[in-house]
Amino acid sequence: MLSVRGRDVVRRLAAAALVSGLVAAGVTGAAGSAAAKGPADNGGASTVLGRLKISAKVKVTEKVDGEERVWEKSGGLFEMKVENGGNLQTYCIDFRTSAYEDKEYKEVGWDQSSLHDNPDAGKILWILENSYPNIPVAALGEKAGVKGLTRETAAAATQAAIWRYSDKVDATPVDGNARKVTEYLFGKAVKAREPKSSLSLSPASVAGRAGDRLGPIKVSTNAAAATLSVVPGAPAGTGVVDKDGKPVTEARDGAEVFVDVPQDTEGGTAGIRAEATTKVPLGRAFVSVKEKSQTMILAGSSSSTVTAEAAAAWAEKGAVPAVTVAKDCAGGGLEVIASNKGDEDWTFELKGTAHTVPGGETKVIPVELAEDEAYKFTLTGPNDFEQTFEGVLDCETATPAPKPSATTPGAAPSTPAPAPSVKGAKGGTGGMGGTTGGDTAGGSTGTTGSTTGDLAATGGSGATPVIAGIAVALVVVGGGAMFLLRRKKTTDD
After folding, report:
1. Using an 8 Å Cβ cutoff, are 185 and 127 in contact?
2. What pTM was estimated for this model as a whole?
3. Neighbour count for residue 332 (Cβ, 10 Å)
4. Which residues, at least 6 apart from 300, have a Cβ–Cβ distance to it below 8 Å?
5. pLDDT digits (tens, 9 = 90+) for 16-37
6. Are 161 and 131 in contact (CB under 8 A)?
7. How far apart are the first and last CA of the chain?
8. Do 128 and 216 meet the contact criterion of CB atoms below 8 Å apart?
9. How many CA atoms lie within 13 A of 390 on its CB side?
10. What does the alpha-carbon distance between residue 152 and residue 427 come to, in Å, rounded to a whole number?
11. Which residue has the higher pLDDT, 296 or 418?
């Protein structure tokens, strides 16, 4: 029987195995490489964020420091391109955060996103299941008792209802028909069950001795089946097999597979890859891989190609490491789950601290991170074992900006956001103003107690606040220069 500590480790391993969280793992070894391209490469769709394509105006009202603030935003459907083929449509579930076009995103479970502690997450899924684009515009209008609904107003109505549950704001479409649809969706919503991953392999890392079957690795997918293969570069004879040792090239949901490494194979690493063509389930969350950008939730999917990878390490003797990293939104950081299947201690360094895992044991190491903090670290071991984990902790919806003071202006959710410091990066809008192209951020402007147009949507110039900012900066710099000159003259005298 497992001890309490043993059961806790098993629970954490199971949680990490099912993770589609913000972790990127690349495994390289003497026998080749299984290089990861995004967070939690053990499963899900990898995408690139496109533009806000179908939208209409939404008025958002919230109280900050006892004062009412009103914003008028463009709300609706974003487009996403799946890395290996396919298109997605998503709504925003993080109203106050900017969205950046061309940023990489990854499919994750609710526990790896801002929905992890949201009791209304299931109601958001119900809205997605019972609104546009899952329900045709005419049918949605009939259910809500309105006529004259368009794609744009239906999308805005749906986004407004979602914002009420995701960000706890009073969101109301400007269009009268859309307002009625929002009230219908918000009032009817009931909790629905979280959807499963489109594809995952768990755990994402296994280890053992050459000649043994390494695993098991569980395949989870909503597709009819997933094809399995060994990542190029593995030693000759390495393959994917079932529990009886028979080669397998295809697996259904729930199947368990193993990595078979020929006996006497020199210590090293290899990877296996799963691939499936399917529709990503409604309600799956999408988070930015490397930089802060709006969290999205899936509203529609074409047939898309999704992939998953798992790594295997082996050796005849000595330490044989395996590592899984889980995003722990509830704990405010990461959980590094380090296992050693060998007969000697494995010592590695993590963020400046040395950790030792004795042979045959597993350690769970918490890594504290601040919200929106980026991280990147590499763990190494014998036989050229090396795994790099990279991502950003994005577990919460952004909070309202503090009340502006006379000396320190506060940033509103619709204030144009600075573009990320990445060469060639396209700008983003504050809140849901829609993504923008070019090299600068664009968006709508807002002030306490009033509304203004969304510059990105109405065609107003995004350069206006920039010019105003430059003017203020020049005044400040000029005043500072005069102060320094006067001080120097006084000192000389």
Report:
1. yes
2. 0.76
3. 16
4. 77, 88, 89, 133, 134, 282
5. 433 333 333 333 333 333 333 3
6. yes
7. 86
8. no
9. 13
10. 23
11. 296
Residue 482 belongs to what H/E stretch?
A: helix 463-492
Cβ atoms of 325 and 369 closer than 8 Å: no
Inter-CA distances, 155 with 21, 76, 173, Å: 28, 5, 10
Give the pairing type, strands 24-29 and 268-278: unpaired
Q: How far apart are CA 448 and CA 450, in angstroms?
A: 6
* β partners of residue 226: 251
Cα gap 149→141, rounded to integer Å:
6
d(CA 61, CA 283): 25
pLDDT exceeds cutoff 60 at 413: no
Tell which residue, 16, 203, 40, has the closest CA to residue 107: 40
Residue 386 pLDDT exceeds 80? yes
Residue 419 has pLDDT above 70, yes or no: no
Token pair 């295809």 is found at: 250
Q: Which residues are within 8 A (CB) of 102 and not within 5 positions of it... i.e. 6 or more apart?
A: 48, 49, 425, 426
* Residues above pLDDT 90, as percent of the chain: 62
List residues bridging with 260 in a β-sheet. Answer: 213, 239
Q: What is the DSSP string of 38-77?
A: SBTTTBS-EEEEEEEEEEEEEEEEEEETTEEEEEEEEEEE
What is the mean pLDDT of the segment spanning 105-119? 94
Q: How far apart are CA 341 and CA 209, in angstroms?
A: 8
Backbone angles phi, psi at 480, to 5 degrees: -65, -40
